[in-house]
Every structure is written in structure tokens, then in C-alpha cells.
Amino acid sequence: MPLPLEPARPHQTLNQETDAPSVLALKQLVARLQREQNKTQDLLSSLGFALRSFNNLNQFLELIPLVASRVTDATVSALVTFAPSGRLRLQRLHCANDNACLVVRPSIEAAIAAVEANDIPIDQFDDQVRQQISGIARLFSTSILIQNRDRGRLYIFSQDPEYIWTETRRKLVQLIADQTAVAMFNDELVTELRRKQRLDRELEIGAEIQFRLFPRHCPEIDGITLAARCTPANHVGGDYYDFIPTHYAVDPENAGKDEQDDEDAGQARSRWGVAIGDVMGKGVPAGLLMTLTRGMLRAEALNRRSPAQILQHLNRAMYADLENSHRFVTLFYSEYDPATRRLAYSNAAHNPPLFWRSRTDTIEKLDTWGMLVGLDSDTEYEEDFVILEPGDTILYYTDGFTEASNPEGDRFEEDTLIDTFQAICRQKANPQEILEELFDQLKNFVGFGRSNDDDVTLVVLQSTA
Fold it and tell me: 273: buried, middle or exposed (CB in 10 Å: 19+, 13-18, 0-12)?
């Protein structure tokens, strides 16, 4: 027998009738939340696009408070930036209504004024803002951090007493603050890159000027041949070498009155100064002092003074500038007379040149007593000379050569340079061959692909028959 159908219950029909509005409201709520989510995504997407596209940081920063207030449904949003100098700036303020701006703006500006007047330290700026806003608006803020340095604050205010700072809203604000930090850091990198490019260009110009100050080629001098090379560690270096023609004009009215005077004048016109020096330090400061040294030495060399007198006058003239710059110059100056094959020299604490005597196959150091240029204004310098015979060879060098190190940390050292130089001279090599071989030996010692840490300069002088 079939079971009778159960009659409908009255309360079930009632639930179906009342559930319809609830479902509709739920659907509307979901739709509204979906729209809010889409709005937030669109705003964040637009901010990301601006971050990638804007070249002007200020244009990007103007968007930050606007986006922050909209994604959090807040009344006011403000961006305050901290410059590396410590200066604070209200970068941008976005308000849902004018009344809100009238309340918030004076509070932030008062806090900024207090910091800049040294009334409060910058790390208490946030507390000062909160005190100003207390009782007026609900506040949330987050730091804008660049490499763990606080570079600003992003503030969000709401005048709605029922406003709640949910975890989602806090994360959104932090995300916007992080994007702000990225934009500011990128702008700093671009600024630094432009500064570096400008500096590199200035260094290139400085290097070109310095290169042109070095002798373009070795002069042809009776009785000797020369070769020289300077390899700076940076664009601009502090090493110096020069060949200075000490030619003196002869007054035609007095020429021929005294045979000895004419002979002396003729010899003076043919003499040449050979100099090598090293300004303590590297880079642009050393390069500037090197240029100063070159100009003053050339002026002194034209005054018909001896090498020792030239160094003494140069030291007095440069003392004040070198003392103010806390730098010194080592300098070896020699003057060659083709008529007598005499090389007179004086040393201001520079590495003594190596003198290879062809006849005896021995190495001597050309050295005299003398202090660094710029160390003592009253110092005096000694002088000595050698007579060059055919085949005699002199190597002028800077300490960048002997202090060059290999991957193991060993230095080239002076003894190695002496042995290498002597071995090459025994092969009857000319100055250019000696120069090339010494630089090749240094390159092999330092190692493939490694550069020297200091400027390296060599000058080779060889007496001919």
C-alpha cells in the first residue's frame, strides 16, 4: 500500500519567501566587493605603470596620496619626504573634501616646522603629527625605507568614527609605500648615474689634457737617444716626466763680443733637462699638482740655474700649495750637455735612476741628498754629475713599477728591476726595446687581466757613439 504524501509544512514556505531578499542582498554585497576589488587592482596597476613609465619623480609622487586614499576609502592622505640633508617636505596632500584639508594640512606643517626649528628630532616627527591629529581623525602611517634609511612617511587619515584599519588596508598602504621607495631609489640611481657620466666625461677631458702635457715624442738630442712611457692607474695620474729644452735667446747686439760667451751660449742652447717625478696620491688631485709641478719646473729650468738650484727654487715656490693640500712631490731633475756628455743631476727624494755602465757592466744609482718637494721650505739640495760613454744607459722610474704586486701579494721590488734592466742592457738593446721589455716583464709579473694599482712611468736614456 503506497505511503501517503507528507503535507507541506507552513514554516518551510515562509523561509523561501524571506530568503529571496537575503540572497539578493548577498549578491549585491559580493558584486560591490568585486567592484571594490577591481577598483583597487586598477589603481595599483595604474601606479605600477606610472612607476615604470614616469621619468619625473615629482609626477609619480603626486599620485601616491591619491591612490592611497582611494584604495583605503580614507578621507585624507599625505606624503612627507625626508631629504638626505634632513630637510622635510610635504610632498603632496589629497583630501576628499576641503574641510579635511583645513584640519590636516596645518597639523603636518606645524610638525615639519618644529623639526626644522630643531624643537624636536626628526625621529619624533611621527609622534608630533599624531599629537596634532589626535581627536580629529583616525590615523595610520608607514615609513618609506630606502636601504634601511627612513626617507619619508605616508599618512592616511579618516574622519569616520566607525572607520576600521583592517589588515587588508594596512597591507595596501605598505605596498604603496614600498612602490614609493622604489621610485625614489630609482631616481637617486639615475641622478648618481648622470653625475658619474658627467664626472667620467670630465675625467676623460682631464686625461686628454694631461696626455697632451706629456712630451708627444722623445726629442732628438746629440749624443743620446730616449724612450719614455707613462701608464696611469686611473684616468688622471700623478706621475710626471718631461724633456725640457733649455734654449736661451742670445742678444744679437752682444753676440760675438766675447768668444767664450758665444761658446757658452751655444752650449746652453743645446742643453736638455730630463725630469721624472711623482705626486703622492692618485687621481684628479695628484694630476692637478702634477700639472702645477710641470709648469713651475719648466719656468725654473729656463733661468740658467743648476739642477740643485732649480729644485731649491721649485720647493720654495710650491711649498705653500703643497702644504695646504697635504701632499708632497718626489722629483729627480737632470740636465744633459751634449758638448761635454755631462749629465748633472739633483734628487728630491725620488727613486734614484739606475745607471748601467757599458764598459764595466755595472749598475749604479744616481742619487743625491734632498728632501721631498713641499716638506720643508728651507731645505737645500745636493748635486752631482756623470760623464756618459757610448752605450751607457740610464733608467728613470717611479715607484709604481717596483711596488706592483702579483696575485700572491709579492712585489716586483727594486732588486728585480735592477737584475732585469742589467740583463736587457747586456743584449745591447736600444732604449725603445728596453722600455718594451720592462713593461712586458711587469705585465707578466702582475698577471693576465690585472691592472696596476699605481701609476707607472719609465724613461730610458742611452748614450750613443
Answer: buried
